[in-house]
């Protein structure tokens, strides 16, 4: 069971919009519009910032960003994983699912989530991010490291994410895909160009969705 972070395991687009505009303000830049943030959401942050704030000095932005990121995390404003999502992870694990994260975030952006004392520490078998993968979504090769390390076949994995880019990566890798629509940022129609094995309106629905997918495979004799 492979899980995206942003707007999947935890809802982050709105708070990331605020966080990034706070960073821009601290380095003397004009704020971006919400429309621009939404249109580039799902891309690696430092790639997207060139469009979110054209001409921005990425080194200055990065230096200020990591300060503000720490402030938001310490204040409990970012990456809050609600109890019902943790219960869903535990139910998946109890059913024998190996849980892993796969995100376009950088290693620094993931550090607090992967700390030994974080609630995810005992729940995850592995995490794949910009620090240990050579590719980023929507490139399907983003799954290569995971598949090599685990020895799993693509069809033995399910990826749950929130964006068409997530679907494109999973489809290209032969991994089954579940679209989580909880954030409201995207609708079913946004995935029309991609194969989606199941839609869920809230992360905890993933438990039943995975059971249904496995039952359907058994019926087909796969």
UniProtKB/TrEMBL annotation:
Residues passing through the membrane, by range: none
One Pfam family linked to the record: HAD_2
GO molecular-function terms, A-Z: phosphoglycolate phosphatase activity
Swiss-Prot/TrEMBL keywords: Hydrolase
Keyword Hydrolase set for record: yes
One GO BP annotation of this record: DNA repair
The protein's name in its UniProt record: HAD family hydrolase
Species of origin: Nonomuraea turkmeniaca
